[in-house]
Task: inverse folding
């Protein structure tokens, strides 16, 4: 049985994706701050901006599964408003979750992905290519995710790990 880990798995696209893969026979671990309830999905408490919570979650996954076949970095959020009126703390929070959260999850997951020659799917956005007015920081954070994806793709290719970004 293949193993999938998804961040932001307690609601929305993350929850539906987790349930879909579970229905297709995957062992699914959904990481989120709020948890969730499902007979088919293992929900683990983890904040993508907190390395210690991620380390705990991935330690459990390593003990139970040994490797990861698919990692989907889905956790994220958007802020909107005029760039000049955006408080710097909100802009930083946007990057902390959308970009640095993706990076921190990848750091924890890569040893397990190498074992399984797995795949990383980073959820980006069309806004990474076509910046949205009044959503400058969301667009910029997703552009950063795309740049990370492209660089990482070349770094891990030799280990049999593939990387892509989905841009809905």
Result:
């Amino acid at each position: 049985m293949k193993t999938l880990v998804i961040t932001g798995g307690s609601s929305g696209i993350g929850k539906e994706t987790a349930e879909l893969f579970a229905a297709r026979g995957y062992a699914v671990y959904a990481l989120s701050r709020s948890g969730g309830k499902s007979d088919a999905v293992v929900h683990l408490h983890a904040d993508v901006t907190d390395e210690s919570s991620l380390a705990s979650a991935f330690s459990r996954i390593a003990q139970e599964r040994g490797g990861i076949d698919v990692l989907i970095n889905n956790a994220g959020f958007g802020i909107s408003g005029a760039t000049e009126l955006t408080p710097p703390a909100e802009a930083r929070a946007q990057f902390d979750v959308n970009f640095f959260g993706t990076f921190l999850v990848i750091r924890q997951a890569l040893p397990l992905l190498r074992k399984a020659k797995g795949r990383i799917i980073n959820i980006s956005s069309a806004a990474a290519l076509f910046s949205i007015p009044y959503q400058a920081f969301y667009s910029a954070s997703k552009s950063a995710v795309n740049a990370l994806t492209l660089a990482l793709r070349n770094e891990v290719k030799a280990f049999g790990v593939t990387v892509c970004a989905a841009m809905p």
Q: What stands out?
A: The first helix runs from residue 12 to 23. The CA atoms of residues 45 and 157 lie 30 Å apart. The chain has a mean pLDDT of 96. Strands lie at 3-7, 27-32, 41-45, 70-73, 119-123, 162-166.
